[in-house]
Amino acid sequence: MRVFLGLPIDKDFEQAVVDQLGNWKNKFKSRLSWIKKGNYHLTLKFLGEVEENVVEKLKQELLKIEFMPFKLQVKKIGFFYSQRKVRVVWIGFQEELELKDYFSKIDGICFDLGFEREKREYIPHLTLARVKFFEPSDPWKNFQQALNKFEWPQLKLKKLVLWQSKLTPQGPFYTPLLELK
């Protein structure tokens, strides 16, 4: 099964995202795959296809983590690029000790179960959209500036979730396998 670990966002923050994006979605000629309401989360570790017995071992190890809710503050709206074209639109967050601590614990648990350690630096972000076709004349800069000026609420992270991800023609469908609150 295809699995990942992440932190779902709270309803107030999700509504702020939905409201802000609603002002912009029809202003792009680029083909964007916007994340659907209810699917927003901060990924901590994507594991990919994992055998069920390994998922069970992972659950047992994750139960040893004492999860405490914490908050994040928006740092900026950003883009991940490929060949100088926007490929992912995201909200970045101030790095908080709690987030780094959970990332480090999860990376260690996964390493002990045979997964590779994360090679790239962890950038805490919330994906807003994936760009399927990039149109350079779109208002990328204006979009970024407007969302950076917005007074974002604090993001409240109340649980850590191990999700199963099923890809469908309608988009990904996430099923929680374990929740730590």
Describe the overall structure:
With 181 residues, the chain is α+β, with helices and mostly antiparallel strands. Helix content is 27%, strand content 40%. The protein is built from four helices and ten strands. A four-stranded antiparallel beta sheet has the order 3-1-9-10. Strands 2-7-6-5 form a four-stranded antiparallel beta sheet, with helices on one face. A two-stranded antiparallel ribbon has the order 4-8. The two termini are 23 Å apart. The relative contact order is 0.28.
What structural keywords apply?
Cyclic Phosphodiesterase, Chain: A, 4-stranded antiparallel β-sheet, 4 helices, 27% helix, 40% strand
Our measurement of the CA-to-CA distance between the termini, rounded to an integer number of angstroms, reads 23 Å
CATH architecture: Alpha-Beta Complex
> Main sheet?
4 strands, antiparallel
The CATH class turns out to be Alpha Beta
User: What is the CATH fold-level name?
Assistant: Cyclic Phosphodiesterase, Chain: A
Task: Name the overall outline.
Answer: globular
How many DSSP H or I helices?
A: 4
How many DSSP-defined strands? 10
Radius of gyration: 17 Å
- Main-sheet strand order equals 3-1-9-10
